[in-house]
């Protein structure tokens, strides 16, 4: 008999019984996300232990990975477990220094929005709202301008439940967590009836006409650090030495971050050091698309530069500079914002449908003075009850504008819809000397 025929017959007769199998699936009951709880701080490993174990298992980590762990670890992350802003914390922000700062920003938004037309209903979106102080000052101005509770809603992008609780207690008359299936994870209501929502990602905020505020937000986003060597660009990594201490080292080969991020025009000029935040570029692009497609304005205020600096990664503890690799989780990790990179991310690129008109950056001193902050200062001083209060207003303002303090280190940048090009040519942006395209 033909051998191939025998083989086919055997397949038909034998293989089905040999290979056939019944269902052997086992039902697994998955945990209900609503019942899951974070481990207690006492039982959770320290940030240093987490980092060291990650390095032992996977090798050196990037600065961006290091920052992400230190900042966002659910139980031991820097922003997750304590109030960090103010005299008792590690740093102080402009809104905490004086109410004038938030009031001027509110006036800027109102003035520029008038060039667009009606602004009701209005979403106010703040990225990293701190203690909520800036929003309180903005709402006070809007109340004086006739905005009612039904005209405004607040949308706060905040990953820290600790900071979220601080914000909710300051802003809201009542607040509550919501179902896990909702895009926001917490909601509340102010005394005047303004709805407040919290999100862990900008992508979840509803698309609508909005004012976007990013004050001291971009400086805490994780960065990749690169150095130019005789072999080309290499990434700065964090490793463990023989004494089990963290230290910096240069990658021997091109990392994936070098291949993806270090490219024209980000590496233009004669730079030998470079810091790039992939997350920062992504957020800038999101803001540009949202402003252009759905209307509104985005205002970024942060300390930074326009590409002239290359090594700015540092840490603050109790208002003092400390080693970023010492006691991770106990100090604020930060890096100066490269505004030239934000411009590249937000401006029109080949194939882009949505982009923003980018203005700035300008120094904080120039922005505040062009927005007539001195006039507001005079009103506050005239209404002060005591000479001591007058001096406080004056010294606080000087802190904001003094070139040796915050006046020149902090800068402002704004995103406008691309459709406003002709309007801005006729009515230049308040606070900014020229429009750069």
TrEMBL record:
State the GO CC annotations: mitochondrion
| Compartment(s) | Mitochondrion
Which GO terms of the molecular function aspect are on file? protein-arginine omega-N symmetric methyltransferase activity
Q: Specify the enzyme's EC class, one word.
A: transferase
The reply to whether Secreted figures as a keyword in the UniProt entry is no
Source domain of life is: Eukaryota
What broad class describes the main subcellular location of this protein? mitochondrion
Q: SUPFAM superfamilies this protein is in?
A: S-adenosyl-L-methionine-dependent methyltransferases
Instruction: Please give a single GO biological process term from the UniProt record.
Output: methylation
Q: Which UniProt keywords apply?
A: Methyltransferase, Mitochondrion, Transferase
Which residue ranges does UniProt annotate as crossing the membrane?
none
The record's family statement is: Belongs to the NDUFAF7 family.
Job description of the protein: Arginine methyltransferase involved in the assembly or stability of mitochondrial NADH:ubiquinone oxidoreductase complex (complex I).
The protein here is known as Protein arginine methyltransferase NDUFAF7
Question: Can you name the source organism?
Answer: Manduca sexta
């Amino acid at each position: 008999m033909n051998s191939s025929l025998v083989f086919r017959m055997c397949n038909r007769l034998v293989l089905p019984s040999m290979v056939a199998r019944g269902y052997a699936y086992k039902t697994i009951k998955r945990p209900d996300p609503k019942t899951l709880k974070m481990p207690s701080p006492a039982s959770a490993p320290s940030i240093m232990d987490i980092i060291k174990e990650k390095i032992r298992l996977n090798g050196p980590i990037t600065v961006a990975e290091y920052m992400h762990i230190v900042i966002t670890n659910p139980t031991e992350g820097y922003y997750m477990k304590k109030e960090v802003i103010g005299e008792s914390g590690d740093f102080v922000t402009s809104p905490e220094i004086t109410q004038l700062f938030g009031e001027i920003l509110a006036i800027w938004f109102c003035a520029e929005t008038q060039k667009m037309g009606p602004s009701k209903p209005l979403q106010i979106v703040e990225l990293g709202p701190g203690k909520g102080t800036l929003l309180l000052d903005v709402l006070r101005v809007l109340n004086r301008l006739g905005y009612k509770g039904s005209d405004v809603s607040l949308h706060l992008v905040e990953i820290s439940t600790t900071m979220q609780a601080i914000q909710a207690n300051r802003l809201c008359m009542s607040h509550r967590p919501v179902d896990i299936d909702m895009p926001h994870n917490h909601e509340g209501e102010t005394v005047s009836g303004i709805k407040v929502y919290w999100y862990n990602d900008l992508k979840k905020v509803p698309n609508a006409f909005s004012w976007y505020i990013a004050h001291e937000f971009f400086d805490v986003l994780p960065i990749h650090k690169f150095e130019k060597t005789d072999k080309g660009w290499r990434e700065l990594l964090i490793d463990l030495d023989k004494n089990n201490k963290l230290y910096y080292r240069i990658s021997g080969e091109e990392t994936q971050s070098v291949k993806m991020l270090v490219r024209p025009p980000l590496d233009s000029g004669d730079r030998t050091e470079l810091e790039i935040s992939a997350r920062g570029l992504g957020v800038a692009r999101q803001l540009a698309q949202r402003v252009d497609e759905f209307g509104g304005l985005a205002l970024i205020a942060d300390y930074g530069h326009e590409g002239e600096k290359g090594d700015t990664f540092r840490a603050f503890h109790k208002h003092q500079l400390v080693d970023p690799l010492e006691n991770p989780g106990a100090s604020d990790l930060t890096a100066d914002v490269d505004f030239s990179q934000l411009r590249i991310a937000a401006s029109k690129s080949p194939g882009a449908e949505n982009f923003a008109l980018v203005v700035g950056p300008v120094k904080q001193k120039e922005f505040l003075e062009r927005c007539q902050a001195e006039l507001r200062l005079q009103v506050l001083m005239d209404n002060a009850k005591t000479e001591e209060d007058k001096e406080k207003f004056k010294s606080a303002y000087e802190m904001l504008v003094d070139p040796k303090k915050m006046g020149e280190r902090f800068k402002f940048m704004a995103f406008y819809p691309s459709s406003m090009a002709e309007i801005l040519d006729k009515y230049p942006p308040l606070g900014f000397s020229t429009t750069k395209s």
